[in-house]
Amino acid sequence: MNEERIVIRRAGPLHGEVAIPGAKNSVLKLMAAGLLADGCFTLTNVPDIADVTIMADLLNAIGLRSERLDPHTLRMVNDGSIIPVAPYELVERIRASINVLGPLLGRFGCVSLSLPGGDDFGSRPIDMHLSGLQAMGATFEMRHGVVEASVSTPDSRLHGAEIVLDFPSVGATENILTAAVHAKGTTVIDHAAREPEIADLCNFLVEMGAEIEGVGSSRLVIHGVEPGTLHATDHRVVTDRIQAATYLAAVAVSGGEVVLRGARAEHMEMLLRRLADMGVTVLPVGDGGGESGDGLAVWASGRLRSIDFATLPYPGIATDYKPLLVTMLTVADGVGIVTENLYPGRFRYVEELQRLGADIRADGHHAVVRGVSRLSGAPVRAPDIRAGAALVVAGLAADGETSLTDVHHIDRGYDDLVGRLTALGADIERVDSA
Ligand code: EPU
User: Fold this and answer.
1) What is the structure's pLDDT at 57?
2) Given a cut of 50, is residue 292 above it in pLDDT?
3) N vs C: which end of the chain shows fewer Cβ within 10 Å?
4) Residue 119 annotated in active site
């Protein structure tokens, strides 16, 4: 099979404006939450990415139909003919398929779900999802790779519970939340994840008629409503902070001056502080980068300064930013020590950066990055979505030509990365692999 490659050549400073698309890690969860109510939903600011198509295929198999009205608008129709079974062929293609568990169990009291796949960066268990739902009255049986979940009360309804998560897991918070909206009584999720995409999901659920307190905090209080009372709604997907960070990193290594339309400073505070430490200036444009604001302006010139950083749950430095920051460190002045606290296996792209001349020692959760003055272009492979995007950024900082394969990973989460970078003056193109 001929797969496309991305070819990048160093081109100097970037200039202009780029519109930041909606967030993958929000839209996929909003789509799954469409299982909770009958009617017609319209999602806007939907990123044009492969994962939306894969999620739509999965939901279609379950009975929630969708069509794109244009590349960034998705209409979903739930006509009540849902079958709470998620087949392996579809589930294994996308980690976010686990997000159908909460809505289906909460609404129908049973679900049969194959265990999900996703990125290849280490074991990604779902024990916290299951123990939270168990506390609400669910029972689980694992057979032949399939989780059979049920609620054995006469009305098949979960009940409220006080749940304290061991760790603020994004997926566990979302599944417990979307199950709790239909539970009998009140559910409290303590030590909940509080990423902006979770607040977006909460806002969507509230627009559907759910009762949720503490949106955006680490303590969510959900008062269950009677089944049948939630309704379909229209919603604009929150801007993608990880795609925004990718363009910030591109400017940081190339120099230049770019406006990121729609990027929200309040969702990226810690990252922006650390970028300032590295010598990158980022300022809000318009009224501050909020929902009605215009976005962020970024300037960079000269050599970056090294920093040490550790990944942490939000509001800490996201693990999804890490490959971008590591790439920036490869050409920065000095030595940076990086600690990964979420996924032990998430340093696999280091070998690819080394092929470009980066000086990195990685061991377990840690990496030491010694900045070099220039990277040098080479053939490299994208190991996952975020590392793939980081290798594109590395290519912008490398002399000669960088040729990136396995670009399907990037297509899962990036809406026209190549087109957007080209518009900013980067020398980058997609070509067929011979
Ligand atoms: N974990 C457990 N048990 C659980 C759940 C999680 O041990 O029951 C562990 C995981 O193994 C991992 C850590 O907790 O070590 C974090 O997992 P979390 O549940 O928070 O992450 P997730 O929901 O699986 C989402 C994003 C990831 C992002 C992480 C962390 C989606 C579809 N995925 O994953 O995004 O890295 O949160 O912020 O929302 C990506 O977009 O490329 C991506 C991988």
Assistant:
1) 96
2) no
3) N
4) yes
Ligand 1: distance of its center to the CA of 409 in Å?
17
Into which CATH architecture does domain 24-236 fall?
Alpha-beta prism (3.65)
Q: Is the CB of 96 under 6 A from ligand 1?
A: yes
Read off the DSSP letter of residue 267: G
Residue 6's pLDDT is 98
Structure tokens at 409: 């990973």
**Which one from 57, 79, 119, 359 is the annotated catalytic residue?**
119
pLDDT at residue 121, as a whole number: 44
Structure-block tokens of residue 403: 């040729």
111-140: burial string, b at 16+ Cβ within 10 Å, e else? bbbbbbebbebeebebebbbbbbebbbbeb
pLDDT tens-digit series, residues 295-341: 999 999 999 999 999 999 999 999 999 999 999 999 999 999 999 99
**Cis amide prior to 284 (ω within 30 degrees):** no
Q: What would be the CATH architecture of the domain defined by 4-20+240-432?
A: Alpha-beta prism (3.65)
What's the half-sphere exposure (Cβ side, CA atoms, 13 Å) at 337? Answer: 2
Q: Which tens digit of pLDDT belongs to each residue from 157-177?
A: 999 999 999 999 999 999 999
Q: 242 near 323, Cβ under 8 Å?
A: no
**Sequence ranges of the domains in the chain:** 4-20+240-432, 24-236
Tell me the CA–centroid distance for residue 169 and ligand 1, in Å.
6
3-state DSSP call for residue 46?
coil
Is the confidence at residue 287, as pLDDT, over 80?
no
Q: Quick one: which of 227, 226, 205, 228 has its CA closest to 215? A: 205
E strands present in 165-255: 186-190, 211-213, 219-223, 234-236
| 125 within ligand 1 shell (Cβ under 6 A) | yes
Torsion angle (degrees, nearest 10) of CA 391, 394, 396, 401: -80
